[in-house]
Specification:
With 324 residues, the chain is an all-alpha fold. It is built from 13 helices and two strands; from the N terminus they run ααααααααααββααα. Helix 2 packs antiparallel against helix 4, helix 6 packs antiparallel against helix 7 and helix 6 runs antiparallel to helix 10. It binds Phenylacetyl coenzyme A.
Length: 324
C-alpha cells in the first residue's frame, strides 16, 4: 500500500494545531482540517454505530405483533422506530466526513462492515424485550453519554439527542422486567432467564479489555472516546447490580463480589472466545440478521427509486424556474 492509502503523511504543524484544539476542548466541525486518520476512525466507528441501530431493530421488531397489550405494543413500536431514526441520524453524521451512505450500506449488506455483537442473539420470550431495554439500552446510554462529549461536533450532538430517547427505552425495558419479576413464579423465571442470557453479551458490548483494544489509544488521544472500554463496562456493572437487586433478580455470575477498596462490583471472566466468534459472523443469529437486512433492502428498492425520481423532478423544476 502507498502511504496515502494506509497511513497518510500529515503536516506535523497542522496535526499539532489540531491536537491543541482537541486538548482545549474545542469541537471539530466538518469543514475544519482534521488528520486523515481521525476522519477514517470516525467513519469506522460512526458507521458501525449506525449499522448497529439499524440491525438492532430486528430482535425487538420480532415481538411487535406479539406484545402482550396495546400499551406495550405502542411503546415497542415507538422504540423500534426511534432506533431507525438513530441509524439515519448517525448515517447523516457520517456523511459529513465525505463518505457516501450507499457505500456504507453496501458494506453492511455484503457482510464486510461490523455492527454490535449484541444484536446477534435471539429474542426467545417477551422478557427478552424487557432485558434489551434495560440492559442493551442501559449499556448504550453509559457508552453514548460519554460520546456526547466526543470531539467531533456532529457525532457529539447526535449522541445528546439519542441518549434522551434511549433513557425512555431503558425505562420501558426495566418496567417490563420489574413487573415480570414481581409476577407469578413462571413470569419471575422468565425474567431471570432473560437476564441470564443477556447479561454477558451486554458486558461484551463495551468491546475487548483495554489491553486488547486496538483503537482506544488513538480515539482517546483525539477526544473521541473520553473513557476506556473497561471503565465504561465497570460503570454499567455498578449501576446494574443495584437495579437487579431492587427487582429481586440475580446477576448470573457466581464470582460477582463487591470490592470495598475500589467501590466496584468485580465480575468473573468474560468469554472472549464467544465475543470474537459473534464479531466474526458466527453468532447465533448473524446470518439471519444479514438475510433480514438484505431482504428489507431489496423490498425497499421501489421507495428509493420513487424518492430519486421525485428529487430529480424537483431539480428539473428548479432549474427551469431559474432559467425562465
Ligand atoms: N461488537 O479497538 P476496539 C445500541 C470491534 S447501539 C462488534 O475496542 P473501539 C442502541 C471494534 O469495532 C450499540 N464489534 O474498538 C440500541 C474493533 O474492530 P475494527 C452500538 C466490536 O471502536 C439499543 C475491534 O472490535 N454502539 O445498542 C464490539 O475503540 C437497542 C477492537 O475493539 C456503538 O457503536 C462489539 N460489541 O471500541 C439499538 C457506540 N466491540 O473496527 C437497538 C459507538 C468492539 O477495528 C436496540 N462505538 N468491536 O475492525 C463505540 O463506542 C466503540 O466503537 C466500541 C468499540 C466501544 C463499540
Amino acid at each position: 500500500m502507498t502511504p496515502t492509502q494506509s497511513q497518510p503523511v500529515e503536516d506535523p504543524e497542522r496535526v499539532a494545531a489540531f491536537e491543541a484544539r482537541v486538548a482545549a476542548g474545542e469541537s471539530i466541525e466538518p469543514k475544519d482540517w482534521m488528520p486523515e486518520r481521525y476522519r477514517r476512525q470516525l467513519v469506522r466507528m460512526m458507521s458501525q454505530h449506525a449499522h448497529s441501530e439499524i440491525v438492532g431493530m430486528l430482535p425487538e421488531g420480532n415481538w411487535i405483533t406479539r406484545a402482550p397489550s396495546l400499551r406495550r405494543k405502542m411503546s415497542l413500536l415507538a422504540k423500534v422506530q426511534d432506533e431507525a431514526g438513530h441509524g439515519l441520524y448517525i448515517y447523516c453524521g457520517t456523511e459529513t466526513l465525505g463518505v457516501d451512505r450507499q457505500e456504507l450500506i453496501e458494506q453492511l449488506l455484503n457482510g464486510t462492515a461490523k455492527y454490535s455483537s449484541i444484536f446477534n442473539y435471539p429474542t426467545l420470550t417477551w422478557a427478552d424485550i424487557g432485558a434489551i431495554g434495560w440492559l442493551v439500552d442501559g449499556a448504550a446510554i453509559v457508552n453514548q453519554t460519554m460520546l456526547a462529549k466526543a470531539s467531533y461536533g456532529p457525532y457529539a450532538r447526535a449522541m445528546v439527542r439519542i441518549c434522551k430517547e434511549e433513557n425512555f427505552h431503558k425505562r420501558q425495558g426495566y418496567e417490563i422486567m420489574a413487573i415480570l419479576a414481581a409476577g407469578t413464579p413462571a413470569q419471575h423465571r422468565m425474567a431471570q432467564d432473560a437476564l441470564d442470557r443477556w447479561w454477558w453479551p451486554s458486558l461484551m458490548m463495551f468491546g475487548p479489555h483495554d489491553s486488547e483494544s486496538s483503537n482506544s489509544d488513538e480515539l482517546m488521544r483525539w477526544g473521541v472516546k473520553r473513557k476506556s472500554n473497561d471503565e465504561l463496562r465497570q460503570r454499567f456493572i455498578n449501576l446494574t447490580v443495584a437495579q437487579a437487586k431492587a427487582i429481586g433478580l440475580v446477576i448470573p455470575d457466581p464470582q460477582l463480589a463487591y470490592d470495598e477498596s475500589t467501590e466496584n462490583w468485580k465480575i468473573g471472566p468474560i468469554d472472549w472466545d464467544e465475543f470474537w466468534r459473534v464479531v466474526r459472523g458466527n453468532g447465533p443469529c448473524n446470518r439471519e440478521r444479514l438475510a433480514a437486512r438484505r431482504a428489507a433492502h431489496a423490498e425497499g428498492e421501489w421507495v428509493r427509486l420513487a424518492a430519486a425520481a421525485y428529487a430529480a423532478k424537483q431539480a428539473r423544476t428548479v432549474s427551469a424556474f431559474e432559467a425562465a
